[in-house]
TrEMBL record, chain A:
UniProt keyword annotations, A-Z: Cell membrane, Membrane, Sugar transport, Transmembrane, Transmembrane helix, Transport
Family named by the database record: Belongs to the binding-protein-dependent transport system permease family. MalFG subfamily.
Keyword Nucleotidyltransferase belongs to the record: no
Compartments, record wording: Cell membrane
Membrane topology: Multi-pass membrane protein
Protein name: Maltose/maltodextrin transport system permease protein
Pfam families assigned to the protein according to its UniProt record, in alphabetical order: BPD_transp_1, TM_PBP2_N
Function: Part of the ABC transporter complex MalEFGK involved in maltose/maltodextrin import. Probably responsible for the translocation of the substrate across the membrane.
Gene Ontology cellular component terms for the protein in this record: maltose transport complex
Regions crossing the membrane: 37-58, 64-82, 91-115, 307-331, 343-363, 395-417, 438-461, 509-531
Automatic annotation (TrEMBL), chain B:
BP GO terms, sorted: maltodextrin transmembrane transport
Listed InterPro entries: BP-dep_ABC_trans_perm, MetI-like, MetI-like_sf
Transmembrane segments: 30-51, 86-112, 124-150, 162-184, 205-229, 264-285
Location of the ABC transmembrane type-1 domain: 87-285
Family to which the UniProt record says this protein belongs: Belongs to the binding-protein-dependent transport system permease family. MalFG subfamily.
A GO cellular component entry from the record: plasma membrane
Organism for this UniProt entry: Paeniglutamicibacter gangotriensis Lz1y
Name of the molecule in the record: Maltosaccharide ABC transporter, permease protein
Superkingdom of source: Bacteria
Location (main, coarse): membrane
Membrane disposition: Multi-pass membrane protein
CDD domains, sorted: TM_PBP2
Pfam families from the UniProt entry: BPD_transp_1
One Gene Ontology molecular-function label: ABC-type maltose transporter activity
Amino acid sequence: MLHPMVEIEEKPSAAPVRPGRERPGKKGHGPDSLGGILAKIILLGITDAVAAFVLFQLVLSGEWLIFVISLATTLVINWIYLRRGGLPAKYLAPGVIFLMIFQVFVMIFSTYIAFTNYGDGHNSTKSDAIASIQLSASERVPDSPQFATSVLEKNGSYFLLVTTPEGEARLGGAETPLETVTPSTTGPTGAATGVDGYTTLDFTALLANQQAITTLTVPLSDNPEDGSLKTADGSTSYVYTPKLKFDAAADTFTDTTTGVVYSDGGRGSFVAEDGTALNTGWKVNVGLDNFVRAFTDQNLQGPLLKVIAWTFTFAILSVATTFALGLFLAITFNRADLKGQKIYRILMILPYAFPAFLSGLVWSGLLNPEFGFINNALLGGAAIPWLTDPVLAKISVLVVNLWLGYPYMFLVCTGALQSLPEEVDEAARMDGAGVFKIFTAIKLPLLLVSLAPLLISSFAFNFNNFNVIYMLTGGGPRFDGTTFDIGSTDILITMVYKIAFGTGAGRDYGLASALAIIIFLIVAAVSALSFKKTKALEDLN
Amino acid sequence: MSTRTPTAPALQTNKQGFTRWFKTKGWRHLIALAATAFSIFPLLYVLSAALNPTGTMAGASTLFTEFGLGNFEELFANQERPFGRWFVNTLVIGTITSVATVFLGALAAYAFSRMRFSGRRVGLLTLLLLQMFPQLLTVVAIFLLLNFIGDIIPALGLGSQLGLIMVYLGGALGVNTYLMYGFFNTVPVSLDESARIDGASHVQVFFKIIMPLVTPILAVVGLLVFISISSEFVIASVVLTDPDSQTLAVGLYSYVAQQRSENWGVFAAGAVLAAIPVMALFLFLQRYITSGLTAGGVKG
């Protein structure tokens, strides 16, 4: 939903903590029942069975570090549930395990990724990169024979079924070198067209998956030096041999045509003397490179600073506008004798009930410059670029977020207003204060004290309000002068998402994680600061 | 702000009465109408677009002029974008996540509320602190972690709904635990004490004494989790790659990601169907949310 709504009910946590009488480990309760013991044994048994399976798989794949951690975790779980006493741990363990993996560990892992060059072109080990370079940087062997080819599919991967000039059918995929098979069907020319268990792609399927098929490289054998098969049209394929020759002793690649030597540059890729690097590299730690790059790279620095500025502007203005409108409406309707109040209320909070991801999409239809309802119907065919002009797009985003957010503030303010003591109001009136004076001097400060924590969490929420931005404008209109797919309405979190998973430039997990760390730091600093401030505010009153 | 002049709408017949009525209440109705119009007009628009057989965004520019269920038929007929599956997936993922979240949260809340142990305060504070950093900030790490897990146990890796549910359960402790903790504190300790004297074990106290008494908060937390999970896009879009396994949020976005104006009618039909259950749940819950607020929520 738009806001972490549960915060509305945060108050119960402020309830006075009753002194518990439980003394774990001592006789505070009756003995476990037989059924309880059985349930415990069964549940623990299932957990251990799953753990054993996972541990076995980890041994098979040689992940020793993770094996040790998993083994230790399994032992701790058994210890917690098998020993006598230690009751709190028994109740906390299930939730804490998930919390540790998918909330705490992933934060640590993000930090680690931020210090690597992990991303497209750098997503594996050096030996994988070497093998991949040998396959990809290849050229057709001059005058080599052509193979009649069919493209087959199985479980989402593609395979080439080729018939050699000698009439032998062979099948292979990106991961599996060619091997001889017996075809189940053959075409009119005698070429193999199908194999049991695989689906042969027809012409439309070929067209639809053109890119995957033209980049498919099938090694001839386990040794990449032997070359590989590629097809450009899905019906014939040729043998390609590596254009770059790897010298294992010197740890360098040599271009067989130009003679240029590429050596390990220490940054996770093979680099020539003139600085050009081979496309495929591997994952290495790069220290603070991602952070330095974010703030110094000409391609990134300008857009990033603009995005940070807009993230703050967006979050602050979102809180301010929704709070102002919500408060105004709460005051307006804060009279018991107003007719139709219930109906107004329900209709007004509907946007808050509408799924947030849909709101952005629906508004993008309303505001669409060409076909949108607002331009076409309300403004009689005007062509106002609501979502494509940098300034208007920002205003549109704020208006849509106002639409989404003000019902929440309205509910919250109504509640806070109604809990204000009546006597204050009366006393002030007796002293001769006017309506406006009562509001600004008495009610508003009181309201701010009780609502400050909610306003802060609303700020924190809007700081990462992914759905509205991504669904409404997608971050656009794009900035000029950068190759990144970043635009005027992008906030930090949408920028992280696009850099990590976007379709434009390659995925860059390292840079994206570095930006996520920056968000961590900002949110932590802002929350710490403001909570300190609000404490001071409370003390004053 | 209200001037507390007693108003008499019965006097509207003469002009002065109307002016007074307008000054005290009438303007409020005007504002209410304006705010209501602002709130519901986009919703009416999407409803009208869903019912408009033209099916394009341009065609949707006239509100409620043509009616037809063509968009809905097309929505369910599309094999590549299986709306029915998405709906079921969302229900399944949302239900499992919310039930498990409630259970894990209740276990933790019981420990925090009823037991005293070292690290209890620190634990509560840590939960409060961790919720400042929403899971979506770590989406890259979650993606890579699931990618790794998938190599070892394919059933939990990328593309798996079970994997996604596990990720969501990472957020099970947190705000929810706090909410439940506050509510658990309102149940008198003397109740579990007397049960214990009668020989109940701690498990029996939890399941037979506490749980029945806190059912309202369990229901509210469960429904809130369901609502927020059904709207979650970022993590779901990264984890669920196969259209058949996707949720409504990811699937409906794919409808308009490329060709927004052409698929508009079908998308609107999907949006209407996707929104109805969530809005119904929300309106049903609204009473609890506001009452928890206005009554101060502090019952203990």
